[in-house]
Design a protein that fits this description.
- The structure is a homodimer.
- By secondary structure, chain A is mainly alpha-helical.
- Chain A has a single domain, classed as Tetracycline Repressor, domain 2, CATH 1.10.357.10.
- The first copy, chain A, has helices at about 5-20, 30-35, 40-45, 50-75, 75-95, 100-105, 115-140, 145-170, 175-190.
- The relative contact order of chain A is 0.12.
- The structure holds a DNA duplex (30 and 30 nucleotides).
DNA sequence: GCTACACTATGACGACTGTTATAAACAAGG
DNA sequence: CCTTGTTTATAACAGTCGTCATAGTGTAGC
């Protein structure tokens, strides 16, 4: 029953801890404890050690958001944008501004050896995936190729940055301001 | 001679290490070594320990950027924007995408106790300072109050987020795309 | 000279880290 | 029953962390 269930709990728990504390402050011991899993099992499920667990956590978070984004983008790019920003808003207020995006978190801690390069590569793929989803939706609604790419990157970058600003200021004001500007931008381009 | 010089080296070195590795991975021992300062001296200059050193490093980085921003904003908001983005671009390429913004770095690592709350508060003040500088410049060029604030927040959030995207993807493409969109936005609003 | 004070040097403390090894428990298949 | 393989339990490793204490060096003022 709990065969691969413990594994999933480990990945989800790692993603949750990373988005709060960052990668370096997330210890395998605490992830295991939080997932009610023995420490020894961690290296059984993830022979690659911490970097493998972290990379899977990043991909897990990326796919979770990506799935939700795909569903909402079906109703148009502006609806996708609104859902994207609403999701981050919930993460912020639901954690009292203590949690953010795990993908961003791993992107701002250096990758000295080849170990963490795998994590960084996973993060890059997640960001690129979100951008591609948004850009495709914009193109489907008549936005030119170059403008669609630029707008998609702007949305992802501004949302990620705004989440960080909100955590620092412990307020949703930055995210709300960014939401207002992005929404009018996308409405003008694809409306 | 080196009275308060060693102190400044410690702060600047801490800022440099934080923007590369993040706060948790930046150890006082390495900061001291990198600044050619004995470890014991660190607690002489910073009785508040790591949190005080980190908070001063965040303020140091904030003031350095803020001074440059003030100078370029004198020529108008679009010139300020260009200089702001160019600065981050230099940080990225000059470090081969290994360095980013120390203020963002400390903002995405949880603050459990009251210690790190001081660091987070410093980061919030820095972000707010940059936003205020940009918003004031926009207002001086005829942009309405609300729109100026929204645009200023968008610029800071998008720039910070774009720097993180660039680090993950090891490319300046995200920052360049964001730059193109922001520039046309500010030109339309304050041109 | 000598006292006062800013700084350095050195070493230790308890706690935590990622990782590995080894032995025990457990399930399923024959 | 017994064997095979997956999962757990426990302990240990070498290293680093933030922090503190103590003794020593210097240098400036009287």
């Amino acid at each position: 029953m709990t065969e691969a269930d413990a594994r999933r709990r480990l990945v989800a728990g790692a993603a949750d801890m990373i988005r709060r504390r960052g990668l370096n402050a997330t210890s395998i011991r605490e992830v295991a404890k939080h997932a009610a899993t023995p420490l020894g099992s961690t290296y059984h499920y993830f022979p690659g050690g911490k970097q493998q667990l972290a990379a899977e956590a990043v991909r897990f978070a990326g796919e979770t958001v990506g799935r939700m984004l795909a569903g909402q983008l079906a109703a148009g790019p502006v609806d996708g944008l609104r859902a994207f920003l609403a999701l981050w808003r919930e993460v912020l207020v639901g954690s009292e501004f203590r949690a953010g995006c795990p993908v961003l978190a791993v992107s701002v801690e250096e990758a000295p050896d080849e170990d963490r390069l795998a994590v960084l590569t996973a993060a890059a793929a997640v960001f690129d995936g979100w951008e591609t989803q948004l850009a495709d939706s914009l193109r489907d609604h008549g936005v030119a190729d170059g403008e669609a790419e630029e707008l998609a990157t702007l949305v992802v970058a501004a949302a990620e940055g705004a989440v960080a600003l909100c955590r620092a200021q412990r307020s949703t004001v930055p995210l709300d301001r960014v939401a207002a500007r992005l929404e009018s931008l996308l409405t003008a381009a694809a409306g």
